[in-house]
Amino acid sequence: MAFITANWNPLGEAFYRKTELYEMCWNLRDGLRDCLVAAAPYGGPIALLREPVRRSPSSRPQLEIYSASGVAIASFPWKSGPVVQLGWTVSDELLCIQEDGSVLIYDLFGSFKRHFSMGQEVMQSQVLEAKVFHSPYGTGVAIVTASSRFTLATNIDDLKLRRLPEVPGNTWSAGEVCRGILMSNGPELYILDTTSCTAVVPPGLGPQAGSIVHMSVSFSYKYLALFTDTGHMWTGSSHLQDKMSEVDTKKTTPPKQMVWCRRPKSQQPSVVLMWDRLLMVAGVSHDTIQFPLEDPCVLIGELDGVRIISSANQELLQEVPLVCQEIFKIASMAPGALLLEAHREYQKSSQKADEYLREIKEQSMLGEAVRQCVEAAGHEYDSNTQKSLLRAASFGKCFLTDFSPEAFVSTCRELRVLNAVRERGVGLPLTHTQLVYRQFYPLAIEVCRYLKIPDYQGVSRVLKHWASCKVQQKDLSDEAIARAVCVKVGDSPGVSYSHIAAKAYECGRPELAIKLLDFEARSGEQVPLLLKMKRSQLALSKAVESGDTDLVYTVVTYLKSEMNRGDFFMTLRNQPVALSLYRQFCKLQEQETLKDLYNQDDDHQELANYYVTASYREKRLESRLSLLQTAVDEYNKAKNEFSAKATEEEMRLLRFQRKLDDEKGAGLLGLSLQATMEALLALGLHKQAEQLYRDFRVPDKRFWWLKLKSLAEKEEWEELEKFSKSKKSPIGYLAFVEVCMKSNNKPEAKKYVSKVTPEQRVKAHLAVGDLEGAADAAIERKSDSELAAVLARCPASDRQLLDRLNRAAAAAAKK
Amino acid sequence: MAHSARTDCPELPDFFLLKRLARDQLIYLLEQLPGKKDLFIEADLMSPLDRIANVSTLKQHEVDKLYKVEYKPIVSTSDQLCFLIRPRIQTVKWICDVANADKATGRFRRYKIIFTPQKFYACDAVLEEQGIIGDVTTDEWSFYLLPLDDDIISLELPEFFRDNFLAGDQRWVRTAGSALHLLHSLYGPFSKVYGIGRCSKMAYESWREQVEEGEQKARQAEIGKVFLIDRDVDFVTPLCSQVVYEGLVDDIFKIKCACVEFGPDVTSSDKSIKVMLNSQDRVFNEIRNEHFSNVFGFLSQKARNLQTSYDKRRGMDIKQMKTFVSEELKGLKQEHRLLSLHIGACESIMKKKTKQDFQELLKTEHSLLEGFEIRESISFIEEHINRQVSMIESLRLLCLLSITENGLLPKDYRSLKAQYLQSYGVDHLLTFANLRQLGLLVEQQPGETLTVMESKVGKLVNDRTGGETGFLFNLLLITIFVSLRIRAGVPKSDEEYDLRVPRDMAYIFSGAYVPLSCKLIEQVLERDGWTGLEEVTRLLNGHEFAVTGYGADSKAKNDAQRIILVMFLGGCTFSEISALRFLGRERGCKFIVVTTAITNSSRLIEALLDNLV
């Protein structure tokens, strides 16, 4: 135990240790020289392509996939074009980026899945360098061509290529993906994004430092390291606002690899640089740790360290966690260290155990001591060390009454799982998901149950993955598979049948896909696959069923592009919801299509309305009239006589207006009948107004009101009087009184009071402010409501009138 | 109000949380576009946005200049443009024009579109068609609910009504479901959900789906029951003139986002003043639900009390004076200011509404509701049209006439329409087509005259008599045909109905009519379902449902069970809210009204116009 610190190397205030993970099982003849190597993070698999640059067209390089411990998973000869870069996606798919910009995707077991291209223009100029990167959006690919154009795809599962603007000078020396693309050209640094290329200056890095020849971003994208041709390494935050350090490596050749080595919560991140025969750890302080290298190696950045793979073995280089430092540092007096010592003495049956224990208890640090041991056990890789730490923790716990065992229990559980999967035969994954991708289903399910991961995240995901593989088994019938899937999956939460069905369809089993889709409870989920399978009618009705209009619209757009117009309209006709949705869209975007839709349905009423609407957009009278005529025809077909007649009258009115506009410059076109008559009267064109009145059978009342108002407005009182006598007024004479009063002409108003009917006479008198008259009329009519109305208007000062009214009111009430 | 209200009404949940959530998300979205940017805001989002985040908040997050979306070329000089809009094709097209214009002049800018409350596929389709999908980033600001007051929450989506009921476009249904889901996750679980109407049913299903997809957290419910109702279940209520103070203010001055602008005629100065109308305004809070005839008396009493408080100053020594100034004076002054504003508003309303025309209009409305003197009403409407009193009002009366009479006689239908077209132009043919489609203005079908319907109803009523629920059932049926003439025991005119001491929800229409929407809610809550109302729902086109229990015990007698959320799909009026408040006081429960928008008769009709002028 004492030599646990043997592989610790101090760097500033921290220690770094290099632990061997595996002796590799593989047997590589030529080592890693001349190989393209890619290893997935989180202890993922390793892909290897020998001699990517072919010596002769006939020689076929071999592509091999190994587990992290070097167990061969797949191997096949590479038949496509020259490969520039290999990389793994977040879901352990292998990306092979070729010189011509096409990207081939293989699964973990080496079977080809699909391919995509990074753009046409790449074909000519060839990919010079490529990088596969991971972000919250998924896995992305960035490439740069020989003509120094960068292209970026942030998520290969939702491919959107972004061709970035040209870079200054059209050259570059190093690049990295971080907030767009970070790129250097000599000593200058640029950020390249979709719209622009912005020069940035890392704080504290002067031009004397030289040209930037290598750069690297940390696993979390928070930190950036730059290496210059003078051997200086600058480190700082990736948003380029703070500098952390600048180290002189005294090396002038650029490193082959430069990778951040940092654990979460650590205050002292460092960078690992690799040259041909040297590995160097450089941190915030000016010190460095140097390891000689015998074999060519590959560095893989992890969340909490760096994996170093060589042809013989695999090591993990990491900062020693603080808690481990405290426990194992020589002569440490930390509570955890004392507890470990106490337990060791206890095993030797030495009374010193009690002394150590007492010392911890005196400082009342026993709880802390247990906590430290448990935590440290989680960080240790060697199972013996884990055991001794956990035993010490368990020993210390005996002396505590109220210590929660939760952390202890879960650490034991997790360590057991981790140790199990670290077994050579399995590989090195850290989480259950990676187990699943390697098709160790029963183990994965057991792990999920053991770790008490909620079903939604654990078992269901395993099941989903299992089912997706199950449907690919070619030797089973559709029936059998569907039944097997249904039995196992049942209605586990979070397992989507449509996802499984999609897989079945991908493997060319549409019938199975349909069978599986029937199990899907949410109709909306079925739609995308149904579309893909060209079951568009079914897709449309499922979309409508789901109530999600966006989905309906997606299907409609799809149908529109797939079907001929007639079929498309017929399909819509059977789905009113989709039809009205599409109509709404057409109203705003495609007026013509709207017309076709109505035509198809023989919907004459809507067609007519459509033409009426269209006529209003038309400036020229002739075209407007012809559209209205079409509307009339359609209304007739729709047996809507009323609208047909109204439209015909409108056409008549328009012609009339045009004529008068031409003759008199009246400016009538487009006015309503009423407004036209008003305008005519205002212009003094009484004859023409009368003509309209007769031609359009305007009700008498309307015309009288119109003429009355118009004459009063123009204050043609004599005309008005003549008009009032022309025949018996159809609107009565109270209207005359009121209109005159509105024009503030009391004398004229009074002329008409006597003509008002007895029922309205009180009102008329009141309107002209003649209280006496109103009182007389009311008393004569003996109506209590009218009497009250007059009373309400009567001022308190007029005693005589008040009395008269009150008396009459009393008399009326008696009756 | 001077009636015997129950005093044990439960407390309402606090909806401030909704505002905070919306604000935090907006800030987050703005920060997604770092650096200075100009913000373009859709015109009808201005007021709601103002209730969530004011200008200084926006400036803090690097919004440089604010513009209203006006569908014109822009003048901004900023390199980053952010658009905060509703998911409307027209607006998206305009943004495309802006971006394409920049492209044509070789100008590079960043564009970000924030859709609220959600993005529609059609928006992306337009962006793609116009070739700028790669140049803009889009986001969604899930700002579903704006609390307008302690008990009113609005989705601020006036287009919901037309899109859903007229165009048959169901795109907003999911939005309503999401809004309900948000309320459920913050204030649920709901123990019981009732609803009526096709759209309600769909919104309910959309919500259920979202509940099932998400994770369920056990929490103490703050809202117990939910009632969903489609606007087309009851068109009569929103078509009536409002006579309760808050509704009247909305009809006349137009309340926008709980804020009203009083013009110079109210403020008796040369300035307009914007006033927030909510329960914070103590004066308003006391009169908002009152029948207008009581408001003036109340206000003058209040003015006298205020004067007395001021008068206390006399005879005070210095110390008392000091405490008076520091403690009471500010409150009194505030109250004084509000009081004078509301008195001003009342005077202005009185001026407009005591005119002969309005009285006659109300009389006609009441005759229609009560089924009296139909011929007189028709000639009144005719004159209304001929004299061109108001384009909207005439249509409103026509619709009321049609609904209450179960359609117009063919002769009337034609002549009234013809006269309307003469007054306002033939393009209203399209408006009439819309009204017919919604069943608001239709021709009577042979054999469906009101008398025939009445006898059917009468038969129903007779079948039920003897049953305990007989009277209520009658009332409900009668309310549907609005013809109060059939039965006795129902108030006939305002002389008999004491509006100061309302007996039932009819007080909001001077006792002439119990709002059907509210009556339905009352009945269903009382019966805990639709049992016994089968005939009624059949007449209302059905789609009713009542579902129990999502993680909560509906039998639990806690306060939350007496908090009832009513969601109006297609808008509700202030009168309905007043009626529900009244019902709540009577029953010792509280109603929270969630609506797609606050509506009234003119907004309802305006939404259905299709004239092109």
Please describe what this structure looks like.
The complex is a heterodimer of chains A (815) and B (613). Chain A has 815 residues and is an alpha+beta fold. In chain A, the strands form seven sheets. Chain A has a five-stranded antiparallel beta sheet, with no helix packed on it. A four-stranded antiparallel beta sheet of chain A has the order 3-4-5-6, with no helix packed on it. In chain A, strand 20 (223-228) and strand 21 form a beta hairpin. The longest helix of chain A has 24 residues, at 641-664. Mean pLDDT of chain B is 81; it is low at 460-495. Chain B is an alpha/beta fold and 613 residues long. Chain B has a seven-stranded mixed beta sheet with strand order 6-7-14-13-9-8-12, with helices on both faces. A five-stranded parallel beta sheet of chain B has the order 2-1-3-4-5. Chain B is 50% helix and 12% strand. The interface between A and B is large, with 46 and 44 residues. Chain A: Residues 495-807 form the Vps16 C-terminal domain. Chain A: Belongs to the VPS16 family. Chain A: Residues 5-409 form the Vps16 N-terminal domain.
Q: Give the amount of beta strand of chain B, in percent.
A: 5-15%
Derived from helix and strand composition plus strand pairing, the structural class of chain A reads alpha+beta
Report strand order across the widest sheet of chain B: 6-7-14-13-9-8-12
* Apparent shape of chain B: globular
Mean pLDDT of chain A: 77
Overall average residue pLDDT of chain B: 81
Largest sheet of chain A: 5 strands, antiparallel
**Oligomeric assembly:** heterodimer
C-alpha Rg of chain A, in Å? Answer: 45 Å
